[in-house]
Amino acid sequence: MRQRELHRSERIGWLRAAVLGANDGIVSTASLVVGVAAANSSRHEILLAGVAGLVAGALSMAAGEYVSVSSQADTERADLALERTELATQRPAEEKELAAIYVQRGLDPELARTVALQLMAHDALGAHARDELGLSDKFIARPLQASLASAATFSVGAALPILTVMLAPPTGLVLVVSGASLLCLVALGAIAARTGGASAWIGAWRVAFWGALAMAATAGIGALFGTKVS
């Protein structure tokens, strides 16, 4: 019986979209909330801005992921269609092409030709898709999956600073939201890095750095323009 091996690369499709969505949800909404709060706005105005940012951001993430991944899927389908045509009209040349790929990977020419012929006899399009184009069922573009994952995780991430605004005291709202959001970003970066097999410290540091920079920038803008308006 063939042993089932679990590779982290199999998670890359949904993991990338989920991490991007959650990270963007926390960073963009927390930055928006902090900027509005730094302008001496009321709690109601801050919450309104946060909720509007959540809805707009989730829909934007869903649409953006769907469009971008659909473009990738379109390219993959076009490449497969071209390969299918070449297999139907130029099969000997395609056999040589596949054999040459195996020679480059270390097989001797005769063995490479034998492997190419046997694989093409079993599934010619699948062999060329995998070894010539680098496409496989595990890593094929899935627009709807990426879209839903990004929208859902963005909403969860954006809900965290909004919830913090509802619970934080009015006097220290900027600091509380910033601190809570940074803690969430650190946890998210560490979990995402460990899920992908990387260092949790590196993952935590890079998302915390960019999150802190974004919140500091919007807080400065809010304080500057809020002071001028008043």
Strand content: under 5%
- Tell the overall outline: elongated
Q: Largest sheet at a glance?
A: none
Number of helices: 7
Q: Quaternary arrangement of the chains shown?
A: single chain
Mean pLDDT: 83
Estimate percent helicity. Answer: over 70%
Radius of gyration: 25 Å
First and last CA, distance: 74 Å
Helices and strands in order, then pairings?
Layout: H1 12-38, H2 43-89, H3 91-104, H4 109-131, H5 143-167, H6 173-195, H7 200-229
Description:
With 230 residues, this protein is mainly alpha-helical. Helices cover 82% and strands 0% of the residues. The protein is built from seven helices and no strands. The chain has helices spanning 12-38, 43-89, 91-104, 109-131, 143-167, 173-195, 200-229. It is elongated, with a radius of gyration of 25 Å. The N and C termini lie far apart (74 Å).
Briefly, what is this?
The chain has 230 residues and is mainly alpha-helical. The chain has seven helices and no strands.
Task: List the main descriptive attributes of the protein structure presented here.
230 residues, mainly alpha, 7 helices
